[in-house]
């Protein structure tokens, strides 16, 4: 694990910071520190333009291989880019699902035809993706998916039927990757397929889900005989679980350092408010701020240790199993700290529609952090079983009388 960077890497850091400072101006000035968790509904069109601005400067997909349209940056340079991006206040990536998940998965598991078809649009910042994993009965238990895929020989296409839920930014997306059951008689992780599908087609309906924040960045997505080209299944029928797990490895990858810088921005705002309103004089508040600071440093060092074993195919060291549980719990606690620092008046708003501050919105949103992507309880089971080799949790079978 490296905790310092070379002179060449620090020169790269200066290049990134200089470009961001020069370009986060004019029409993009208003986007600073916007578009993060709980704020993804803000400035969607302007953030799409920013994504294309990044592409023009060669700052999308920096870690992708050059032959796939990326910049070919080292792990150290990817860490630096993500840190400087968040430090500058650059807005949340509307293309992060494509750049961080769909693209690396297609590079690792896809065909040459799939790479030619889908990667250029992601690199150009012009084609956005969403993730079709969770279902009403398959959230943390992804292997319980019920969405079905059958191959229609006459059409030469896969026909998809089912429902996905908690699909972030589906209403803004051009494409979706979908886990569906190719073998109707299969159970658990067997008999699954991983499909790449166009969103704008008959048979796909998107319905927004209103959250505590009053926004609808999550959606339900319904598939009613929606079509997927024969060449747009990644791997073979039955390979879906392997591909899906590879994708989740990329989710625990280098972008986590950028996420931590967003957390640092939030913590900085909490500290600033505490100094302004006198909350920083409270020894209990000071102790909680210190604990949050230390927790964020621990998060960074564990991520660096995890990334030191990155094989580039989505597989990470066992330390990666801790990350989701750790950051979700830390971020939830930060939301509670923010509210306590702002004081009891922050819990009261005038009549709706309510205008939430960034920290109020963050506080409400972080309640979902411990649920999506695998609940804290599921994460503990994964750590125990896969990381520590402990026996699996016993299942209770109830027999009918």
TrEMBL record:
Keyword Flavoprotein tagged: yes
| This enzyme's EC code(s) | 1.3.99.-
| Co-factor requirement | FAD
Q: What is this protein called?
A: Acyl-CoA dehydrogenase FadE17
**Domain Acyl-CoA dehydrogenase/oxidase N-terminal: from-to ranges:** 8-126
Q: Which family does it belong to?
A: Belongs to the acyl-CoA dehydrogenase family.
Cite the SUPFAM superfamilies for this sequence: Acyl-CoA dehydrogenase C-terminal domain-like, Acyl-CoA dehydrogenase NM domain-like
Q: Which GO terms describe its molecular function?
A: flavin adenine dinucleotide binding; oxidoreductase activity, acting on the CH-CH group of donors
The residue ranges of the Acyl-CoA dehydrogenase/oxidase C-terminal domain are 238-387
Q: Name one GO cellular component term.
A: plasma membrane
Record keyword Transport present: no
In this chain the Acyl-CoA oxidase/dehydrogenase middle domain maps to 130-225
Pfam families under this entry?
Answer: Acyl-CoA_dh_1, Acyl-CoA_dh_M, Acyl-CoA_dh_N
Question: What InterPro entries would the database entry show?
Answer: Acyl-CoA_Oxase/DH_mid-dom, Acyl-CoA_Oxase/DH_mid-dom_sf, AcylCo_DH-like_C, AcylCo_DH/oxidase_C, AcylCoA_DH/ox_N, AcylCoA_DH/ox_N_sf, AcylCoA_DH/oxidase_NM_dom_sf, Mycobact_Acyl-CoA_DH
- Enumerate the UniProt keywords alphabetically: FAD, Flavoprotein, Oxidoreductase
Organism per entry? BD1-7 clade bacterium
The EC class name is: oxidoreductase
């Amino acid at each position: 694990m490296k905790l310092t960077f070379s002179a060449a890497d620090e020169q790269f850091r200066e290049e990134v910071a200089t470009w961001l400072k020069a370009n986060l101006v004019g029409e993009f000035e208003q986007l600073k520190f916007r578009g993060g968790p709980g704020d993804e509904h803000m400035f969607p069109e302007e953030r799409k333009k920013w994504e294309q601005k990044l592409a023009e400067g060669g700052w999308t997909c920096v870690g992708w291989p050059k032959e796939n349209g990326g910049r070919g940056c080292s792990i150290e340079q990817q860490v630096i880019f993500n840190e400087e991006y968040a430090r500058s206040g650059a807005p949340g990536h509307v293309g992060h699902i494509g750049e961080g998940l769909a693209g690396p998965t297609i590079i690792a598991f896809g065909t040459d035809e799939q790479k030619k078809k889908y990667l250029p649009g992601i690199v150009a910042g012009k084609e956005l993706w969403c993730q079709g994993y969770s279902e009403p009965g398959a959230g943390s238990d992804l292997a319980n998916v019920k969405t079905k895929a059958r191959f229609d020989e006459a059409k030469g296409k896969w026909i998809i039927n089912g429902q996905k839920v908690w699909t972030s930014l589906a209403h803004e997306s051009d494409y979706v990757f979908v886990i569906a059951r190719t073998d109707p008689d299969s159970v658990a992780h067997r008999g699954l397929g991983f499909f790449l599908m166009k969103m704008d087609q008959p048979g796909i309906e998107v319905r927004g889900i209103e959250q505590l924040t009053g926004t609808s960045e999550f959606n339900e997505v319904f598939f009613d005989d929606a079509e997927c080209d024969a060449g747009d299944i990644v791997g073979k029928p039955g390979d879906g679980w392997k591909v899906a797990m590879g994708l989740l490895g990329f989710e625990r990858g280098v972008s986590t350092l950028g996420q931590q810088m967003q957390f640092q921005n939030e913590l900085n705002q909490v500290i600033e408010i505490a100094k302004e309103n006198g909350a920083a004089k409270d020894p209990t508040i000071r102790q909680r701020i210190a604990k949050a600071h230390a927790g964020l440093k621990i998060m960074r060092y564990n991520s660096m240790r995890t990334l030191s074993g990155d094989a580039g195919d989505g597989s990470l060291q066992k330390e990666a199993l801790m990350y989701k549980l750790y950051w979700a719990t830390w971020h939830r606690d930060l939301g509670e700290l923010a509210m306590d620092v702002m004081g009891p008046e922050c819990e009261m708003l005038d009549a709706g529609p309510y205008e939430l501050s960034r920290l109020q919105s963050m506080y409400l949103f972080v309640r979902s952090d411990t649920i999506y992507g695998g609940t804290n309880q599921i994460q503990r089971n994964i750590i125990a079983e896969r990381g520590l080799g402990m026996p699996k949790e016993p299942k209770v079978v109830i027999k009918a009388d």
